[in-house]
Each structure stands twice: as C-alpha cells, then as structure tokens.
C-alpha cells in the first residue's frame, strides 16, 4: 500500500527537478513522455505503470490479455503488406492467371482472427480501465471525506469537483484501449521493419530512419505541448469555479446587476485557457505535418534507391520494392497516427498526478482514523487551557490568544462577544475541525487530541447557524443523526424541536422530498430539522452556534424551551448574538480579542454597568416607555405560528443573498442529486415560456457558430485539401507502378526521379495543410465552445428564479451539465472532426478513382464500403443510445458536489462512511451502464481492424479473374484495388474518432436546451426609466410559487412605504416577509394585484433600471472569489475608491480593511471564507450602500453581527436610510423599533400595522414578540 504523504512532502515533490532513469527513459521514448523534469506542473507526473496502481488482479489479467492481443495484431497486420508484395510481383512479372488459393484461405483466416482478437482485446482494455477509474473515484472521495477543515479552507470546491470529473475522464481515456493501440502501433512498426529486412536489408535500412525520426518528432511535440496542456487544465479548473459560484449564487448576481461582470470574469478566464490550448494545437499541427513530410521524403528516397537496386539487378523482383516501401510506410504511418493516443496517455499521467496528490494526502486531523481513546461515558466537563489559535490562511493573526475557561458537567455556558472574537472558533476547536496552536482542550480531564475523532464528534453535537440539509426526505435527513432510528424516535425528536406540526401537515409528511438543500422548506423549518437531527444523536455535550437565528421570536421561544429540555443532563455551549436567549445560562463568558474579558451570570454581568456585556444588553433592550405593559402571555400553541406549509423557503429566502435557493448553493453546500431526464428539462423550458422543440443535434451546433464561420470555412477548406493526400498518394503510386511495369530497365532510375520529387512535394503540402487544418479546427473548437459556455452562463444568469426551483434544472444540475457537455461538444469541432472530414473526403475521391481505373473493382469496393458504413452507423446509433442513457442516470457529479460542499456537516455528524457508500453505489450504477456499451465499441474496433483483409480479399480475387479473362490490365487492377484498400483505411480512421463524436450530439442537445431556455435576458433593458422617488405600494397582492401553485404565500397583501420612510415587516417564519422583497426584486411574478413604484407598475419598469434603484442586504452574506474591492463594486461601473471608502465607513468595516496588510486588495477567499460572518455581512452592506440606492431592502441584515457591531451598523443603516425608502425584515425586533411604520404579517396578510409605540399599545401579536425578546431584568 502506498504511504500517505504530508503537505510538506507534496511541496517537496512539486518543487524539485524530476530526472528520468532506466525503464522510465525507455517509456519516455516509446510513449513520447518528453522531459517532464523541466516543466513546473501542478503535481509531479506519475510514471506510466503508476497509472495502473489501483488495478486488481482481475484488471491486471484483462490488461495483460489486451496487451498480448494488441501485440499479436501488431505482428499480424503487416502480413497484408507481405501478401500485397507477392501479388505485385504477379502483376508485374506475368500476364497469366495464377490461382492463389493460399491467398484466399489466408485472407479468410485473418478476417475471422482479427474480428475475434479485436473484440477480446478491446473489451478487456475497456472494462479494466472502467474498473480502475471507478476505484480511483472511490479512493478520491474517500480521501476528500477524511481531510481536515484547514485544508478545505485553502481549496476551491468547484476546482475539486472539476478535477475529479475531468481528470478521471482523462485517465480513463489514457489507460483503456489507447494502451492497446500504442502497443499495436509500436509492434506493427517493428514487425514491418523486420519483414522489410527479410525482403531486402539495404532498402529497409535506407527507409528505417522514418521510425526513429517520427518518434523524435512526437517526443518533441510532447515536450512542447505538455506545459500548455497543464496550464490549460489548471486555468480550466478556475473557469469551472467561476461558473459554479456565479450560477449557484445567481440571485445575488441578479440583485447586483452583476450578470455581465461575472460573464466578463468567466470570459477572461476562458480566454486565458484558450491561449494555451491554441499553443498546443499549433505545436500538434506543426509536428504532425512534419511527420508526414519525413514519411514522404523517406518514401521518395526508398523508391529511388529501390529503382537503382532494381536497375543494377541487385533486386530482381520489383514487388519487393513495393513490399518494403509499403511495410515501412505502413509501420511508420501507424506510428504517426498514435499521436492522439500518446497524448491521451500523457494527459492521463498528468491527471493521475493531480488525483493521486489528493488520494495520498495525509490530513493533520484524519476523520477516518481509528487511533485514540474510545470513551464510553463522559460527564461533560470542558476546559480550555491557555489555548492559542490562528487559521492556516492567516497564521500571523491569533484568533484565540491564551483563552482559558471551564464548563462544569450539565451547565449551560454562553459565549458572547463581538464578531471575530473567537466564539465560533472555539466550537471548531472543540469538535477538532482544527487543532489549536498551543494550549489544550480537555473533556473530563482528557485532552481531546487523545480521543478518537469519531468518538469525540459523537460525544459533541453541533447545531450551526446555517442549517445544512441534504437532498432526500425529511426522515432521511433526521436519520443522518442516527442511522438506526425508528420512525417513532424521529417523531419524538421532531416534537422536541417543534417541527412535528408543520411536517405532519405536509402531503407526504416525513417522506416529503425537501429538494436541493431543503429548498422546499423555510429557513426556520430547516433549522428545526437540523436541531432534531442533533437531538437524536443524544450527545453529552451540545454546541449551539446561533442555533435559533433563523427563527422568528415566537418559534425561538418554543425551540429554546425544547433545547432546554434537550440540554438536561448534558453540558451545553451556546453562541448567540440575540442575548435574550442567554439569560438562563449558568455562566456567560464574554470574549474580547481571543481572551476572556468577563465571566458571570446574566444578572451579575448586567450589574457591571460599564461592562461589555451590560452595554450589549442595553443595546438590545427596547426603550422603557415603549414596552408592553401587560404581563407576558403564556406560550401559544405552535400551530398558531406554523400554519404555513412547507414552502416558504422563498419566504425566508426568496433571493440569492439569503435564499433557500442560495442555501442550496455553494455557500451551504446543499446540492440536489437528481437525474436529468430530458422530459423534465423540457417541461421546465415550457414553464419559462419556451415552447418545447425537438432537439436538432449537431445541426443546431453548426448553425450557432456566429462570428466563427470564417474560421469554419478555413477549417473545412484545409480539411478538404488534407483529404486529397491519400488520393494523390494513390495516383503517384500508380505512376510508380507504371515505371516498374515498363520494359526498358535502363530508364527506370531516370523515370522514377520526378516521381520521387512529387512525393517530396506532397510531403511539403501535407506539412502546410495539416498545420493549417489542425490549428483552424482547434481555434474553431475553442472559440465556438467558449462562446457556447458564455451563452449558457448568460442564459442562466438572466433566468427567472422559478426555473431553478425545479429539481431537474436546479443550480447544481445546470452547473454539471455545462461543465460536462461543453468539452464533449469539442469532438464535433476540433481536430477529431478534421480527421473525420478529411478521411470522408479521401474515401469519396478514392472510390471515384477506383471506378475510373476499373469500374467492376470500384463498384465491388463501393459496396464493401457501404456495408462497412452501415455497420458503423448501426453500432454508432446503439452506442449513442447507451451514452444518452448513461448521461441521464449519472448522478455522480451532483453527489460529489454535494459531498464536497457539505463536508464539514458530514464530518461533524460522522457520516463519512455513509456518504462514501452512497457515492460508491452511484459510480457502480454508472459503471454498469458504461460496460454495456463496451461490446459495441469492441465490435466497432474489430470490424475496422479486419476490414482491410476482407476488402483486399475481394478486390484482388476479382482482379485476378478480370486479368485472366483479359478484361483489365494489372496496372488498372492494382490501382483500383489499392484505391479501395486505402479508402477503407481512411474510413477506419473515421471510426477511430467515432466514440467521442457520438457523444457530441446528446451533449449539444443538452447544452442548447440550457441556452435556448426562455429567460427574459432581452427584456432587462426594456421598459420605463422614470425618476424614482421611492413610493412602494403592494395592493391586494396574491402570490404562490410556480412549483406549488395551490398554496398562496401572499394572500391579498396590502402594504405601503412612502418615499424616505423606513418600513419594517415582522411576523412568524413562513408568513411571507421575504417574499415581499423577492417580488420587489422581480425574482418572481405575482399572481394578481398591483405592485407599484411611484405609481408605475413594477412590471413596466426596465428590470436593470429597477435593480439599479434597489439595493439588497440579506441574512446570509454571499461574497465571490476576489478582493474586497471587487466584491463591493460588484455590478457597478461608475464608482470610485472614495465612494467605496464612504460606504465602508458607514458599514463599520473601514478599520478592518485599512488595517489589513493588503487593504482593499485583500482576497476574501471562496464564498468569503477568509472572513468572519460579521465581516462578510458588513462588506455586503457596503456593497449595497456604494450603489446609493433609492430603495434599501434589508432582510435580517444585521443578524450575523454581534450586539456591539449591530448597534454601530444599525446606526449607520439609520443614517443610510435618510433620503431613501428602507424596507426591513427582522426577527430581532429591537432593530426596527424606530421604523416609521411596522407591518405584522401572518399567513400572507397584514394583521397589524402602526409605529412601534402604537403596536405596543395595541398589545397584540407584535407586543407578544417584544415581551419574549426584551432583556430587562
């Protein structure tokens, strides 16, 4: 077993020089490995044999059989040249018929032998490669599941999943039939040389240089292209990450009018990638053309020298000259066409290095380790002893700086402090997501580093601020907490978490599918299911990190009571910004700058008038005169506040910045794992106003290459010229035959000289045309596919929100489809298409030549070719159906994305093995479907391998008869038969690209289905652009989400906000608060009623203009990879640095930014991972304020902030609200007490409205919520 490596060892590997030695050098020559040591790649390329590291004994046996059969075919195929040489002697030296029964018999033997050998060889190689890559996928995912959080902090999830999918495909391509092809080609060349030496050693020695020079050319090509290929792969991974974060957070992008910004960013990355791809195409085309020049030069020299030997009678049989020339050309040509196979192996070795780097990485905290103590019982005593910690991405900044505190068994301990003080970091250390730099954390006096990692995480249960659920049913999600739960235990846990009532009202109850990351649930509902999942684990220590932040006040009280019950007998650590949830804690620890600043009970700390905690409490208290005077009411029945059905995922999050949709995105990692049935996708197309249209396959691709038709015409013309090579070669060959057929021996050398010059001229033409054709097709493929990627991205970024609510068109499915389909389409545009076109042209012209020279042979050969075409068509059709089926059923990509996105949750609930088994089942299902196509691919290979024997058998047998009866001359038969044989060879070359080509059509259909989906992208600039004051009015608005049309979320809502007013919307979870904001942003279309902005219907305004006037700040801050400055300026074009500084000053983030080493150029990391939640939120607020909007929408905009920051930012927002309309949604009612008007919404209607004081005096539902949140003693 390979020893795992540490990060340092990997660094050493990648930085050192790689020297070849021994067998490695030999493989480098044969497989054109090139000098990898001089290239700085992402990882040290593995050796050829390391590609088979995961091969089982059975796989090794199949590979050995395949290799032996490949060598056998490589030895056997040159015999056709041997037989051809004998026949040429017959045609040249005699005019009488010789009945050659041996030839007839041998031809039949070779046909049957090659068919059976070819099928066996291909199936063995294909199935072995599928098995090996399946094992690689399994090991890669197993390794990912055991890596520590610190490592993931430095990775991009989009790149990790892209590496898995793309690199595994490269490895599968490089270790399957390609190895057999290489062995066959090399063996064929060596066999041809040996037979040539047997015929005539002098002539063979002259022509032998073709092989070594060809190998040298291919090796040089490999060296020149490997760096470009590696850089292209690396940049393509970055492009995949841009695509993923853009589409997964599409509502955030739309709200910021940042569609074109993200498209430009994606286009820039693709352009950089295209630059290296064109380098690779240029080198490949030049060296491929140079190879043919060398081939024809040696051919010319060979025939000229052969004519000389014939003229001086050293060679008495001219057929030997043709035999040797054909043998060397046949062997060298087969060596030359190995270029794509050699490149496939080269790419596989580079890809394997990247995959193995992940597989072999030894994590500093191994979640799969069996080491450590397995503690059965703990009391729950927790001790932090002088703990110091800094995140690996910011080692110079200590988050915890000598933190020490103790929690007694059974105590409820609260951690309080401003954002970034180390509260959540303490949770991460206690669960060993990270290891502390120094100090120790003890549970019952045992250092947690000495406890088995799974045991520790089973002792400790965590409920996080962002509720992370998985695709599947409610029951399955709760069962992730404990796999052997009974249904009754699940119900009991949900009752404790106050989730049973709303689940029971669903049509499918606990079997309800919750969609991508719980997209069918509101934020509060998701939170309660997450709490239930933790409760069933029955942990001795319960960690609540803002566990009730997504709940409204009433639900929060109920769930808090439930958590109190759940906390009985266990130690509970609570982190909360909403201090009303902490008053019953046994101990409250106030943190500041990574140290304990204050410690005591709620009452003790409140008595410290100048203390930090007392000031935080004061900031969250309502003004005394505004408090409801009636005593607190008893807890209301939960159904009062939970009548809404499953769907206010949009209510609590109807848009990307704080959407269920976004929570089902990159930020939280909830990704749907669904198949992609065409019917479902087409239905969703109809949903968006696009009539279902029949897929047009590749025709649609070729008619959508706008701006690239010049390149396409150039590519077609050069490909046609390239296709004339073989016909010209046959005609020159005919002239060569005529020279040796003439009677005057002394003029042979004189007559062969101009023919030799023509051979060289043909080689020069091949160099020019092949270079031009390869580069033209490569350039076309890169430009067209990049254009389609951008069109697909643009279509999705301008898409209506409802499109992504459908599982078959969810964000994860869409990203996967674009990422997978675009590369598959290249086969219909790149040099593989050139090979298909030029060989089709060659076949057509060669058949015409055959008919012109001898029509019976031409027609016989044409029929034979038509039979081959029919067989190829039938096989290709069957393969396409199987590939289409595999494409539909392939769930591995979406599942891998879900696992990577939710890796922390999976590790915290210790379900690594479960998800690994699930992934293995999915790849085994895919493996079964892929293996079904192997026999058809094998038959295709066998037919093409044996066709030339069958073709020559018929042609020469008929030709001999025609010569015997005097109907044809030997030269006519020779040229016609040679034309048919060469046309068959050309057609076989077409079949070599057929496997990848047949995948291009379904990929094209799939991608164009995304591109052609109706989106309204053309309407964003259409509409009115009036001057906006800021009057907003909802008049009898009714709305239901398209996926649940039977349930109204808003049911006749009336709400008015006048220009300059601050209006607040309060109410229980699922009541429709966030839907109000979603409709204002026009993410959805309401069913009926009127929504106006300054008396203008919102639907008549330009959508882009509308979003320029509105700025949105949501609960979950979504940031994108890049700098702080880029994130703040997202979607804007006219803002200066001074505007940014002013916005940052208001958002209370300027000090943090300007004291950072890189200031505004500080990288925020993927999803803002380098920043704390509060820092991300304040940057999101600055992003909204820099736009200077007329209307400011705040949906729990300060929920991620600590009390101190909330107060400061709230004051800033109050100042920012001056002169603009501000609509606020908040659960924390202290933040809206100064609003000009407050609307209390329940069941989609306004049930109370007025100022804070008026609603307090009304003593209704709003007053009840205030009493539950007030912190006064």
Automatic annotation (TrEMBL):
This is ABC transporter, ATP-binding protein. Keywords: ATP-binding, Membrane, Nucleotide-binding, Transmembrane, Transmembrane helix. Its main location: membrane. It is a multi-pass membrane protein. It comes from Onchocerca flexuosa. Residues 65-347, 713-999 form the ABC transmembrane type-1 domain. InterPro entries: AAA+_ATPase, ABC1_TM_dom, ABC1_TM_sf, ABC_transporter-like_ATP-bd, ABC_transporter-like_CS, P-loop_NTPase, Type_1_exporter. The lineage of its organism: Eukaryota, Metazoa, Ecdysozoa, Nematoda, Chromadorea. One of its GO terms (biological process) is oligopeptide export from mitochondrion.
């Amino acid at each position: 077993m390979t020893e795992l490596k540490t990060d340092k060892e990997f660094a050493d590997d990648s930085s050192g020089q790689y020297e070849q030695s021994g067998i490695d050098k030999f493989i480098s020559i044969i497989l054109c490995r090139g000098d990898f040591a001089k290239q700085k790649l992402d990882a040290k390329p593995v050796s050829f044999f390391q590609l088979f590291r995961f091969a089982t004994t059975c796989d090794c046996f199949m590979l050995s059989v395949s290799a032996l059969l490949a060598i056998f075919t490589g030895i056997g195929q040159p015999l056709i040249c041997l037989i051809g040489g004998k026949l040429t002697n017959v045609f040249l030296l005699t005019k009488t018929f010789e009945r050659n029964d041996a030839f007839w018999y041998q031809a039949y033997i070779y046909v049957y032998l090659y068919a059976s050998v070819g099928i066996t060889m291909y199936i063995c190689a294909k199935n072995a490669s599928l098995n090996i890559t399946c094992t690689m996928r399994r090991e890669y995912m197993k390794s990912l599941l055991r890596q520590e959080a610190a490592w993931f902090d430095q990775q991009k999830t989009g790149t990790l999943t892209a590496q898995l999918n793309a690199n595994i495909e490269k490895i599968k391509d490089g270790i399957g039939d390609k190895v057999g092809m290489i062995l066959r080609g090399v063996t064929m060349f060596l066999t041809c040389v040996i037979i040539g030496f047997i015929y005539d050693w002098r002539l063979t020695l002259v022509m032998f240089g073709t092989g070594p020079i060809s190998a040298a050319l291919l090796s040089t090509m490999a060296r020149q292209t490997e760096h470009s290929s590696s850089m292209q792969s690396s940049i393509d991974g970055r492009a995949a990450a841009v695509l993923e974060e853009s589409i997964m957070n599409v509502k955030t992008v739309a709200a910021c009018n940042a569609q074109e910004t993200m498209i430009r960013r994606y286009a820039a990355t693709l352009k950089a990638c295209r630059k290296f791809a064109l380098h690779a195409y240029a080198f490949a085309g030049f060296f491929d053309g140079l190879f043919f020049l060398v081939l024809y030069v040696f051919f010319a020299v060979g025939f000229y020298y052969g004519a000389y030997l014939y003229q001086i009678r050293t060679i008495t049989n001219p057929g030997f000259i043709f035999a040797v020339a054909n043998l060397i050309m046949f062997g060298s040509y087969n060596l030359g066409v190995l270029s794509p196979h050699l490149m496939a192996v080269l790419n596989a070795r580079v890809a394997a290095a990247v995959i193995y780097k992940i597989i072999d990485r030894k994590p500093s905290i191994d979640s799969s380790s069996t080491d450590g103590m397995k503690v059965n019982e703990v009391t729950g005593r927790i001790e932090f002893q002088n703990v110091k910690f800094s995140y690996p991405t910011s080692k110079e900044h200590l988050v915890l700086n000598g933190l020490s505190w103790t929690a007694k068994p059974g105590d409820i301990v609260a951690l309080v402090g401003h954002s970034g003080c180390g509260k959540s970091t303490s949770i991460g250390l206690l669960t060993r997501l990270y290891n502390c730099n120094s100090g120790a954390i003890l549970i019952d006096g045992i250092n947690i580093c000495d406890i088995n990692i799974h045991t520790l995480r089973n002792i400790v249960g965590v409920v996080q601020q962002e509720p992370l659920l998985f695709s599947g049913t409610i029951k399955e999600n709760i069962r992730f907490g404990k796999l052997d739960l009974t249904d009754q235990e699940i119900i009991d846990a949900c009752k404790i978490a106050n989730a049973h009532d709303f689940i029971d009202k669903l049509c499918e109850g606990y079997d309800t599918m919750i969609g991508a990351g719980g997209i069918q649930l509101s934020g509060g509902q998701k939170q309660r299911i997450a709490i239930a999942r933790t409760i069933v684990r029955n942990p001795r220590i319960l960690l609540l990190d803002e566990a009730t932040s997504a709940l409204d006040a009433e639900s929060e009280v109920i769930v808090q009571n439930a958590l109190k019950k759940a906390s009985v007998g266990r130690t509970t650590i609570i982190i909360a910004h909403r201090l009303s949830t902490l008053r019953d804690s046994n101990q409250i620890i106030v943190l500041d700058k990574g140290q304990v600043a204050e410690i005591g009970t709620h009452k003790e700390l409140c008595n410290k008038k100048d203390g930090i905690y007392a000031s935080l409490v004061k900031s969250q208290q309502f003004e005394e005169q505004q408090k409801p005077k009636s005593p607190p009411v008893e807890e209301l029945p939960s159904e009062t506040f939970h009548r809404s059905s499953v769907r206010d995922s949009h209510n609590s999050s109807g848009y990307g910045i704080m959407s269920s949709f976004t929570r089902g995105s990159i930020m939280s990692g909830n990704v749907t794992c669904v198949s992609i049935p065409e019917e479902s996708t087409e239905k969703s197309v109809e949903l968006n106003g696009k009539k279902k249209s029949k897929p047009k396959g590749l025709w649609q691709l070729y008619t959508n290459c706008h701006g690239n038709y010049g390149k396409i015409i150039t590519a077609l013309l050069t490909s046609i010229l390239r296709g004339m090579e073989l016909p010209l070669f046959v005609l020159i060959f005919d002239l060569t035959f005529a020279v040796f057929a003439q009677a005057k021996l002394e003029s042979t050398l004189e007559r062969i000289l101009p023919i030799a010059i023509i051979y060289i001229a043909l080689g020069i033409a091949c160099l020019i045309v092949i270079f031009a054709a390869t580069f033209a097709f490569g350039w076309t493929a890169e430009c067209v596919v990049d254009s389609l990627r951008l069109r697909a991205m643009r279509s999705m970024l301008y898409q209506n929100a409802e499109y992504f609510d459908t599982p078959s068109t969810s964000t994860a499915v869409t990203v996967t489809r674009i990422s997978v389909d675009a590369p598959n389409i290249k086969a219909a545009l790149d040099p593989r298409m050139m090979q298909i076109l030029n060989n089709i042209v060659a076949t057509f012209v060669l058949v015409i030549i055959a008919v012109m020279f001898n029509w019976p042979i031409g027609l016989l050969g044409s029929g034979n070719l038509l039979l081959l075409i029919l067989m190829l068509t039938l096989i290709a059709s069957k393969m396409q159906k199987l590939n289409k089926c595999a494409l539909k059923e392939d769930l591995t990509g979406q599942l891998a994305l879900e696992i990577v996105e939710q890796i922390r949750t999976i590790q915290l609930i210790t379900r690594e093995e479960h998800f690994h088994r699930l992934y293995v089942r999915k790849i085994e299902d895919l493996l079964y479907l892929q293996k079904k196509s192997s026999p058809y691919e094998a038959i295709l290979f066998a037919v093409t391998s044996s066709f030339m024997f069958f073709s020559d058998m018929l042609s020469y047998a008929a030709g001999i008869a025609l010569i015997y009866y005097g109907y044809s001359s030997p030269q006519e038969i020779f040229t016609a038969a040679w034309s048919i044989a060469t046309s068959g060879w050309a057609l076989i070359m077409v079949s070599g690209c057929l496997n990848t080509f047949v995948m291009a059509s379904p990929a094209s259909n799939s991608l164009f289905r995304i591109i052609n989906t109706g989106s309204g992208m053309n309407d964003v600039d259409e509409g009115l652009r009036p001057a906006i004051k800021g009057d907003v009015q909802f008049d009898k608005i009714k709305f239901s989400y398209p996926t649940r049309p039977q349930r109204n979320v808003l049911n006749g809502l009336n709400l008015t906000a006048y220009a300059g007013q601050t209006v607040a919307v309060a109410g229980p979870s699922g009541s429709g608060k966030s839907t109000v904001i979603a409709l204002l942003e026009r993410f959805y279309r309401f069913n009926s009623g009127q929504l106006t902005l300054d008396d203008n219907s919102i639907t008549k305004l330009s959508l882009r203009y509308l979003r320029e006037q509105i700025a949105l700040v949501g609960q979950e801050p979504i940031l994108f990879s890049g700098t702080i400055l880029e994130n703040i300026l997202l979607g804007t074009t006219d803002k200066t640095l001074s505007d940014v500084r002013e916005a940052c000053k208001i958002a209370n983030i300027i000090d943090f930014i300007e004291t950072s080493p890189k200031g505004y150029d500080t990288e925020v990391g993927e999803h803002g991972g380098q920043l704390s939640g509060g820092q991300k939120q304040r940057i999101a607020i600055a992003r909204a304020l820099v736009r200077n909007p007329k209307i400011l929408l705040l949906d729990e905009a300060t929920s991620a902030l600590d009390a101190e920051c909330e107060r400061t930012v709230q004051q800033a927002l109050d100042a920012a609200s001056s002169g603009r309309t501000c609509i606020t949604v908040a659960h924390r009612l202290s933040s809206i007490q100064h609003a000009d008007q407050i609307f209390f919404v329940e069941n989609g209607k306004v049930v109370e409205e007025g100022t804070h004081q008026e609603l307090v005096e009304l003593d209704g539902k709003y007053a009840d919520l205030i009493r539950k949140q007030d912190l006064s003693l």
